[in-house]
Amino acid sequence: xxxxxxxxxxxxxxxxxxxxxxxxxxxxxxxxxxxxxxxxxxxxxxxxxxxxxxxxxxxxxxxxxxxxxxxxxxxxxxxxxxxxxxxxxxxxxxxxxxxxxxxxxxxxxxxxxxxxxxxxxxxxxxxxxxxxxxxxxxxxxxxxxxxxxxxxxxxxxxxxxxxx
Length: 164
What we know:
Helix content: 10-25%
Order of helices and strands: EEEEEEEEHEEHE
Protein name: DUF4265 domain-containing protein
Organism: Streptomyces scopuliridis
Strand content: 35-45%
């Protein structure tokens, strides 16, 4: 979900992949990723050791982070640094408007489910997919390849840039 207040856009996760009973939330300023005026609210779980927090959602916009990564939360409830990587990746797909007659979103949902992957949708045009093992991804890639080739869908890895 996205909401704009006083010119600032806040992105939140309505259904985080690892929702648990004791979650914290912290904001990530997206300006270092060329998304000035935007913040993403991440769901975190406090870890017993080391003062870190585990990322419990699949980032839609923040680069360099994935589900299960451990981050440090500042006193201002912002994520200020990455402590350790989980070994997971996040694949993000954005579906452009207008939608083509052959819309691959339902095929993508089926491929993600068949592969046993976790995903989160931000509206009906932007999905973040947890990738614990790249070897299961071919059906997911195949499901949107036609739209990517036609320019009606775009994809990226969340780790294509480092977290800052």
